[in-house]
Amino acid sequence: MRRPIIAANWKLNMLRHEAQAFLVAFRADWDAETHEASPEIIIAPPFTALETAARALNDCNVALAGQNVFFESSGAFTGEISPAMLRDAGCRYCIVGHSERRSLFAETDQEISRKAHALLKAGVRPIICVGETLEEREAGKTEDVLAAQLDGSLEDLEPVNARDIVLAYEPVWAIGTGRTATPEQAQETHAFIRAHLQAGRLRDQAKTLRIQYGGSVKPDNIRALMARPDIDGALVGGASLRPDSFARIACFDQPENTSS
Ligand code: PGA
User: What does the alpha-carbon distance between residue 198 and residue 216 come to, in Å, rounded to a whole number?
Assistant: First the structure.
């Protein structure tokens, strides 16, 4: 049984007072509901709002995540943040290898693998992102691209640690574009990812490993995505910036409130 996992990726958004106001409003909606599917909820604020978010989420079962990390634990690396610093700031998770990091900051699978390894060592669970571009999909290369990203990003992973990682499939063409993969397309790709892991070193772990979908997830498409057997959660960007819309996504297991 894989516990659903819904994460908010705030990217380069939210000053501390905005994060505070968001979390007060979100908690009012979230705490008011009973959650049959008992999804795990994660918020990834910018580093500067982590402490504010940790205070606002005190006594509540919403976890915090970093959006990025460096693989060294200390030293002369101006501007970087270590896994232990994230943990110290209250993070249980950290996103690594987001497509924006891969494309805008030239992050490689090898760096992502080192980051994931360093996070696990520090007791922080990595959310490792993979995804193909539109060009790659249209050229029929989706599976090859994902296989290479998975093999490279998981290179340092000991199978025994697989229970502490989460994967996020985020087709680059669906991120921030309003163009979501259909539930069928997402399911097909998630099933490929699971089968690929099962055929490799993670044969015994692939069935229990959680795979989130990311790319224009909204309150009105979350249910159809979550109904698919290999989609275990969502990594939400734009629609996670408003407390009401993220609450509706997080409450995907509730009957839809038609008044909102
Ligand atoms: P989006 O972003 O929901 O705005 O498409 C998702 C992500 O980049 O994680």
Answer: 28
Residue nearest atom 2 in ligand 1 by C-alpha distance: 237
CA distances, 171 to each of 42, 53, 238 (Å): 21, 29, 15
Q: Is 176 in the pocket of ligand 1 (CB under 6 A)?
A: yes
Backbone angles phi, psi at 162, to 5 degrees: -60, -25
What gap in Å lies between CA 58 and CA 14, rounded to an integer? Answer: 19
Ligand 1 atom 6, closest CA: 237
113-125: b (≥16 Cβ within 10 Å) or e: bbbbbbbbebebb
Q: From the first residue on, what is the mean pLDDT of each consecutive set of 10 residues in the chain (260 residues)?
A: 96 98 94 80 98 94 96 98 98 98 97 97 98 95 98 94 97 89 96 97 95 96 97 98 96 67
Cα-to-centroid distance, 29 and ligand 1 (Å): 22
Q: For the whole model, what pTM was predicted?
A: 0.95
Q: How far apart are alpha carbons 235 and 228 in whole angstroms?
A: 16
Task: Give the pLDDT score at 178.
Answer: 83
Classify residue 66 by burial, with Cβ atoms within 10 Å: 0-12, 13-18, 19+: buried
Residue 108: count other Cβ atoms within 10 Å of its Cβ.
12
Residue type, 141: K
Reading phi first (left if > 0) and then psi (alpha if -120 to 50, else beta), residue 216 is in left
Q: Are 205 and 159 in contact (CB under 8 A)?
A: yes
CATH number for the region 5-250 comes to 3.20.20.70
* DSSP at 175: T
Q: Where are the domains of the chain?
A: 5-250
107 assigned to active site = no
Contact (CB, 8 A) for 113 and 158? no
